[in-house]
Design brief:
With 203 residues, the protein is of the alpha+beta class. It has six helices and nine strands, in the order ββββααββαβββααα.
């Protein structure tokens, strides 16, 4: 009786491969499972949102990984849907609900970077995605302590904002088309099954 989100997959649309995912939300009323609501949607908006995040005056970047550790959004488009090199370590951390702060050589930035990753909870799927931010260490250390603390705080805030946006997008995509709440969806589904076809659905 949990929400389920599928691993993102490519689907050809008008000759262009589009990255999609599907999420299924169970309809449970008074402890009884009545069915589920499923929605398929493009991840293009999320990719644009993540790609627009460039911390430390554009010197850094953001990334979004799926529940299996595959890239959903990343500056190098050739790696989309491919597993991240450090995916296993990150997945172990997010499964425990903790953020990860590391510093290491970054092949994309071609210098050492400061990296921050945090789990992104999607409904009650139990399979969080991973949102990360990276910035060159030399740029981070070049700032005063006060500036650095503010910048790091902004990195954390941007992660929180994006996480909230992700949750909102998934919720609206699944629930809004059918009335906004699982209980409302159950009421409509049951009445239709009983032959009542004159329900009012608020959209």
């Amino acid at each position: 009786k949990q929400d389920v989100i599928l691993e993102p997959y490519s689907y050809p649309y008008n000759g262009v491969d589009v990255l999609l995912t599907s999420i299924a939300v169970p309809i449970v009323v008074d402890g009884t499972f009545l069915g589920s609501v499923t929605a398929d949607f493009s991840l293009d908006t999320l990719q644009q949102l993540i790609n627009a995040i460039k911390p430390y005056k554009g010197t850094g970047y953001a990334e979004l990984l799926s529940q299996s550790g595959a890239y959903i959004a990343y500056p190098d488009k050739a790696l989309i849907t491919k597993p991240a090199v450090n995916a296993e370590r990150l997945l172990k951390s997010v499964s425990q609900g903790v953020s990860v702060r590391t510093s290491a050589e970054n092949t994309l930035l071609k210098t050492a970077s400061y990296d921050l990753t945090i789990p992104v909870t999607i409904g009650n799927t139990g399979t969080p995605w991973i949102l990360g931010l990276s910035a060159p260490i030399d740029v981070v250390l070049a700032e005063t302590e006060r500036q650095r603390n503010i910048a790091l705080l902004l990195m954390v805030v941007s992660i929180i904002v994006v996480s909230a946006a992700l949750g909102l997008i998934f919720t609206r995509k699944v629930l809004r088309p059918i009335g906004g709440e699982p209980a409302e969806a159950a009421r409509v589904a049951l009445s239709v099954a009983n032959g009542q076809l004159t329900n009012t659905i608020h959209v």
